[in-house]
Amino acid sequence: MRGRRETLDSMEGKSKDSKSAVTEKDIRTRAYEIYIERGGSDGRALSDWLQAEGELKKSAAKAASRAKKEKKNLHPRNEV
Q1: What does the DSSP assignment read for 9-42?
Q2: Are 47 and 12 in contact (CB under 8 A)?
Q3: C-alpha–C-alpha distance, residues 5 and 28, integer Å
Q4: What b/e sequence results for 26-41 when a residue is b if at least 16 CB atoms lie within 10 Å of its CB, and e otherwise?
Q5: Exposed end of the chain (fewer CB within 10 Å): N or C?
Q6: Tell me: the pLDDT tens digits for 10-69?
Q7: Which of 31, 34, 15 minimizes the C-alpha distance to 23?
């Protein structure tokens, strides 16, 4: 049976969007936090990984949307 660390290490490099603001290290760290939060029981590494990836990508998308809105508000179109 593979250990948690080996499982997470084997997932490295499998992110679909390598240009995403969310790094694999970020996902690994969050997945480990999820693992700890639920008591450290083995057997849910993929579930933890996918949950972490989803949370982080959703958060990054919200931040990007906010930044876009703020930029738009800083540079309003000149109306003639």
Answers
A1: HHHTT--S-TTSSS-HHHHHHHHHHHHHHTTS-S
A2: no
A3: 10
A4: bbbebbbebbeeeeee
A5: C
A6: 544 444 444 448 999 999 999 999 999 999 999 999 999 999 999 999 999 999 999 888
A7: 15
Report d(CA 51, CA 30) in Å as an integer.
Answer: 9
d(CA 59, CA 74): 23
Identify the CA nearest to 31 among candidates 19, 68, 67, 40.
40
Structure tokens at 36: 């700890």
- Please state the pTM of the whole predicted model: 0.64
